[in-house]
UniProtKB/TrEMBL annotation:
Pfam families: HNH. The keyword Hydrolase applies. This is 5-methylcytosine-specific restriction endonuclease McrA. The lineage of its organism: Bacteria, Bacillati, Actinomycetota, Actinomycetes, Streptosporangiales. Keywords: Endonuclease, Hydrolase, Nuclease. Residues 74-95 are annotated as: Disordered. It comes from the Bacteria. The keyword Nuclease applies.
Amino acid sequence: MARSKGRAGRPWRRVWNRLRSSPGSDVCWLCGHPIDKSLPAKHPMSWTADHVDPISLGGAERDIRLLRPAHMRCNSRRGNRTGQAGRPVRTSEAW
């Protein structure tokens, strides 16, 4: 059986669950608005873990200190840019 690579598997899931259940994980670090954790995973405003330093640019994948809660939409718009903390991401939806 082949081993899975990347974020698949239990180690990533454990880190993801720890971040999701931590205090303050219901506010998007990019836009500062609340995140509804009951939304389905594919919903644009659902909860996701954002890598402070994108993996594609050498960021650590499973280090919980380098993950932040974010809306899927905000995380997607940020892409693989770094240095976004404290600066809201522009979204097409008016808050």
